[in-house]
Amino acid sequence: MPRSLSQCAKQERGVWQRRYWEHCIRDEADFAAHVAYCWGNPVKHGLVQRAVDWPHSSIHRDIRNGRAPPEWSGMQDGNFGEP
After folding, report:
1. Which of 61, 62, 77, 55 has the alpha carbon at shortest distance from 32?
2. What one-character-per-residue DSSP string does 8-75 give?
3. In terms of Cα–Cα distance, which of 33, 30, 57 is closest to 43?
């Protein structure tokens, strides 16, 4: 994909989003929140109706291993929470 003039001027390669930042996982709850955020992204962006409908999701592995319930939705107050 060609880079924009802005990306060229800033010597950006276009791999990361501009608003990307590092985050150190603080504890088990923080880890769980970030995993849930990843599971919910395809739903949040309208790509599928349910997280399990996204074939590339790690939720399938976690359901098989008993770490997530098959009916997981991640919805709280009508939307997905972001960590």
Report:
1. 62
2. HHTT--SSS-TT-------SHHHHHHHHHHHHHHHHHTTS-SSGGG-TT-THHHHHHTTSS-TT---E
3. 57
pLDDT reading at 75 higher than 80:
no
Per-residue confidence (pLDDT) for residue 73, from 0 to 100: 74
Residue with the bigger pLDDT between 4 and 28: it is: 28
Taking phi first (over 0 means left), then psi (-120 to 50 degrees means alpha), and beta for anything else, what does residue 63 get?
alpha
Six-digit token string for 51: 């997280």
pLDDT digit string, tens, across residues 24-68:
999 999 999 999 999 999 999 899 999 999 999 999 999 999 999
Decide if 14 contacts 1 (C-beta within 8 A).
yes
